[in-house]
Amino acid sequence: MARRAVRESLVSLAGLVGRPVRHQGGAEIGKLVDVVARWDGVTRYPPMTGLVVRVARRLAFVPASQVENITHDAVMLRSARLDLQDFERRPGEVALAKDVLDHQLIDVDGVQVIRAADLYLAPVAGRILLVGVDVSTASLLRRLGPSRWRTRPTPERVIDWASIQSFSDPETHVRLRVAHTGLRALRPGELADLLEDLGRDERQELLESLEPATAADALEEMEPGELEALLREAPPEQAAALIAAMEPDEAADALRGLVADERSELLEHMPPLTAQRLAVLLEYPVNTAGGIMTTNVVCVPAGETVATVRRRLAEFQEHSADIDAVAVVDGDGGLLDDVPLFDLLLAPDDRRVGQLVAEHPCPSVAPDTPLDEVAQGLIDARRSSLLVVVDDRPVGRILADDVIDAFVPDRGKFHFPRLLR
Amino acid sequence: MPGRFRRRTRFLAYLAIAGPGLIAANAGNDAGGIATYASAGSQYGYRTLFFMVLVTVGLIVVQEMSARLGAFTGKGLAALIREQFSVRLAALALGCLLLANLGLVVSEFAGIGAALELVGVSRYLSVPLAAIALWALVMFGSYRYAERVFLLLSLVFFAYPIAAVLGHPNWHTVAIDTVVPHFIASKDFIFLGVALIGTTISPYMQLYTAAGVVDRGIGPEEYRLERIDAVGGAIFGDVIAMFIIIATAAVIGGHGPLTSARQAAEALRPVAGSAAELLFAVGLLGASALAGAVVPLSTSYAISEAVGVERSVSRRFREAPLFLGLFTFQVIVGAAVALTPVNLIRLLIGTQVLQGLITPVILVFILILANRRSVLGPAANGPIFRIVATTSVVAVAGLSTLLLAETVLSWFGIA
Question: Among A20, A338, A376, B91, which residue's beta carbon has the most beta carbons within 10 A?
């Protein structure tokens, strides 16, 4: 019910701008130029903190406390007299018409980058809040027409402001807003799409507001070209941290997209151990097993019990997507078998993993195996991953999805300029 | 740091082969461009060369600003215009762009018609077929391959510099006319001048350059190199254009305005002899078909970008109704107008004049955007650049206004 009341009292920002601001007596004191709101990342609906009004030739600021009410075509002030302060933006405040209307925003629920065609304000419990953003083409057309049309809200495709991730004011570059909680619930692929669609500043801001691990997951899903661009424009320290947080095979892939000097620059900024692991991966050509394998392999000695192995797997939780089996090795580290997680799950706690090792030889490939042979190996073994071994020791794992990736090259979005390449 | 330096040179090599600035500026040498340049050579000999030098300065300034806006904001020009100006002004800019590009599409289809008429195919057959073929190629995704063929065909026009040399032009006159100002105060000269501006500084190029820079992820760090691409591309494109003028002037200079594609093909005779017409037809077909798809695509992209539906809508642009509708509309209108029974060369030059009239509107937007510190920060135009850029834009706008005024006055029989 509260929602319906809100909808009926929606005021279109695009329609309100340029409308008269009146005293209580009804005398016009000036025209509305902009509505200032404050966002802090906690409140779902940012409150209006004041108005920018053109009085004679001067831009004046009217604090929200002096505003009696806002209708769709006028602003009524509370007091009879107005003390005109010059407009000055305070930290945390955003001029809605200038900085938000027509700019990029993220619709977290709909997982898309949008451009605000209109913003809707509504009085709620004595305050005026920014409640929604309109993205319909009809609203754009309404704004092109005569001013009479502009004031009429056309709330057909309105997105609740609570599901919007907004950006800070581009001039002051103050990063105000913590990431929308909904962003964390997005799949990495969805986040990657959003990153690809944003402009330079917005993209950088979104990236900075995400946890490095979340950001790294999203980067793994990005188009190689877009990822390359993003890594180029980010400061080397940040780019290096992001790559270091990616899964090793994806990280190596990302680094391959850069030229040698950029690559070594980023490797220098990484923790030595990570850099070393990546450097090994980069040695293998991209169209071989070594080129697409991940180095996240869980190796357990045959003598360990299933319970111990399960505990050990818990440490690899963040790499869970890379692990669908456990390599069982003998005392010298030589491979005995690749035991699927399903078998581990069914085995009793006190069983030794050595007892789960199958009779027949375990399927594996060498790092220099070409990709079509790897694919054939996966098909023959009827598995979703294959171990990569050197001198009988497991060094990496090939995941079926990476093989698919390698065989499905063009799955990108349509961008007009790409047509010319 | 040697490492940094090596990285730069390699990036430079990449830009040199296929930088957005180079591609955009050379796209200016399409059907309309060749018709206009050839007509200039035929009508005024070498006397438009100095004017071309001025136009080149303007092109360099404008292309540089567009590339800079793309590199420093990561956004296309249409999106920037909507963010920075009112929705109404953005609609005005895009309306102008749509009109200018429609003119270009018309000229591309006219070019296809003219090329095939040289080898004996009626344009009433070739233009509709070409329209359907281009539409289908773009729609059903095999355009990328066809495009390489078109690009290859249009390389034929590199024969012009050779033709210019083999045609034994009077190099002394060429040199003098290139450096000494030479204006003729006649309506025809102004008309041709506006057409030269329109075909050299088409709004579509600026939008393409900015979009290309954004799409390739060229950022502030690589901007110094991208500037070489933008400036170098502009110079290269215009040098080819000047060779077209010289080659035509050497062979048929002083014959008055061009009337047919057959006449324009004469300029290639020193290179190809009796095969000149065939060579010209191949090049014209390639250039026209290439631009015939790219120009409507670029309009659709810019408008979709401004409306804000370019990216979220689709992974495949076929699924975007606005994009698809605009593209189809332009191809249909372009082919239909190209079929009207008028002289093809006149039609080609006419569409370039339309470009010339609209160009100043888009240039003003670009100039204001590049002047704004709130958009570009420290990369905004400095005081000297501001003067040069403003002068260029005012000069272009002035000439366009002059033509417009004279045309309007002539309707009332005053001038």
Answer: A338
Q: Out of A135, A196, A416, name the one closest to residue B298 (CB).
A: A416
Instruction: Name beta bridge partners: A325.
Output: A340
Enumerate residues 6+ apart whose C-beta is below 8 A from A313. Answer: A298, A323, A326, A341, A344
* Gap from A341 CA to chain B (nearest CA, Å): 36
Residue numbers of A between 6 and 35 with CB closer than 8 Å to B: 14
AA identity, residue A373:
E
Instruction: Out of A137, A261, A413, name the one closest to residue B3 (CB).
Output: A261
Phi-psi map region of B330: left, alpha, beta (phi>0 left; psi -120 to 50 alpha): alpha
Q: What is the CATH number of domain A299-405?
A: 3.10.580.10
Are B258 and B35 within 8 A, CB to CB?
Answer: yes
CATH number, residue B246 = 1.20.1740.10
Tokens of B64: 């540089």
Return the structure tokens found at A132: 């929604």
* Predicted ipTM of the assembly: 0.73
Chain center to CA of B309? 26
The CA–CA distances, whole Å, from A372 to A254, A324, A403 equal: 22, 21, 9
CB contact under 8 A, B216 and A229: yes
Comparing CA positions, the residue from B161, B158, B176 lying closest to residue B247 is B161
Compute chain A's Rg from CA coordinates: 29
CATH entry, A186-283, from 1.10.8.60, 4.10.800.10, 1.25.60.10, 2.170.120.30:
1.25.60.10
Tell me the pTM.
Answer: 0.78
Using CB atoms within 10 A of its CB, is residue B222 exposed (0-12), middle (13-18) or buried (19+)?
buried
Assign A416 a pLDDT band (cuts: 50, 70, 90).
Answer: very low
User: Domain range for residue B224?
Assistant: 2-411
pLDDT in tens, B33-92: 888 999 999 988 888 999 999 999 999 999 999 999 998 888 889 989 998 998 889 999
Contacts of residue B273, defined as CB under 8 A and 6 or more positions apart, other chains included, come to none
**Domain regions of chain A by residue span:** 2-165, 186-283, 299-405
Count of domains forming chain B: 1
Residue of A nearest to B5 (CA): A261
Angle at CA B96, nearest 5°, toward B93 and B102? 140
Give the helix ranges, DSSP H, for A89-235: 137-144, 147-150, 181-184, 188-197, 200-209, 212-220, 224-233
Q: Which CATH architecture has domain A2-165?
A: Roll (2.30)
Query: Cα dist. B320→A114, A133, B178, B301, B313 in Å?
Result: 15, 22, 48, 11, 6
Closest among A237, A175, A170, A230 to A197, alpha carbons compared: A230
